[in-house]
Recover the amino acids of this structure.
């Protein structure tokens, strides 16, 4: 079986769309369809259910997907180990992060220490980072823990708390702390439900019998801050991000106990070959174990 066919199969299995997969691979859709048919002939069974433009993995396709990811991961690890023997060093790390603010100070200090290593940091939801690690599109993740998966290793770094951010003209702006129940009294601009920060605040509120109904749901902390500054509503953000704000027009207020709190940590695949770049970055973050402020 050709390695190329597995690359094509993986793209279609992840996109579940031939045209999108072809664009991702840089080939035409008819060429990709032909290659998938060749693979299906080789394994002796259909790998996808086709219904119009919609496709789904068959049971054999699901099995092959699991093994394909494992095979491609092992090939990548072999290349790294061979490169290490030859005295080579990988100069690029792909990192998924639940907010770039979690890494700001660490990125600066690591770059100064290792200027030859390229860091490609992508801001993703926690589950997107998990999928990127398992799909070999990421080398490392910095996320809210736990991220439970038998194929991943979790390394805690520090505790993250959530805080309320409001404009200076807001009635709560001079409060020393805000109870969870008080959040229901004001308009809120929050993350969309898929983001872990939103899940943290929702879980904490549900524990005290409260269900928040935000006036707006957004996908970035920057957009939420713009709404706060325009007095659209308050927002709930990680303390590590709020501590970096340089805006005299807003107030950052702690949440009263029991305040939502979660571990932030590193995640990476088990049995990953620790080339010097990856090992150095992990050790750099683990040695600090403090959030960016």
């Amino acid at each position: 079986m050709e390695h190329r066919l597995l690359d094509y199969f993986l793209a279609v299995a992840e996109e579940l769309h031939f045209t999108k997969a072809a664009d991702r691979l840089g080939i035409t859709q008819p060429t990709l369809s032909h290659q998938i048919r060749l693979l299906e002939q080789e394994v002796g069974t259909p790998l996808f259910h086709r219904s119009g433009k919609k496709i789904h993995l068959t049971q054999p396709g699901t099995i092959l997907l699991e093994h394909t990811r494992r095979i491609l991961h092992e090939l990548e690890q072999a290349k790294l180990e061979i490169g290490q023997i030859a005295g080579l060093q990988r100069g690029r790390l792909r990192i998924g992060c639940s907010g770039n603010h979690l890494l700001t100070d660490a990125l600066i200090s690591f770059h100064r220490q290792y200027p030859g290593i390229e860091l490609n940091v992508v801001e993703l939801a926690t589950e997107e980072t998990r999928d990127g690690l398992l799909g070999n599109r990421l080398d490392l993740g910095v996320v809210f823990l736990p991220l439970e998966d038998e194929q991943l290793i979790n390394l805690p770094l520090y505790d993250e708390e959530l805080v309320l951010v409001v404009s200076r003209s807001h009635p709560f702006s001079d409060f020393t702390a805000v109870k969870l129940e008080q959040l229901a009294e004001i308009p809120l601009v929050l993350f969309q439900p898929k983001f872990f920060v939103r899940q943290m605040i929702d879980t904490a509120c549900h524990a005290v019998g409260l269900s928040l109904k935000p006036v707006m749901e957004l996908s970035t902390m920057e957009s939420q801050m713009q709404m706060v500054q325009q007095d659209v509503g308050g927002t709930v953000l990680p303390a590590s991000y709020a501590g970096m704000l340089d805006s005299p027009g807003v107030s950052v207020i702690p949440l009263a106990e029991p305040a939502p709190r979660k571990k932030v940590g590193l995640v990476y695949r088990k049995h990953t070959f620790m080339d010097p770049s990856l090992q150095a970055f992990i050790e750099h973050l683990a040695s600090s174990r403090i959030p960016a402020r």
Observations:
- The CA atoms of residues 9 and 36 lie 7 Å apart.
- Confidence is low (pLDDT under 50) at residues 85-89.
- The two ends are 51 Å apart (CA to CA).
- The longest helix spans residues 59-85.
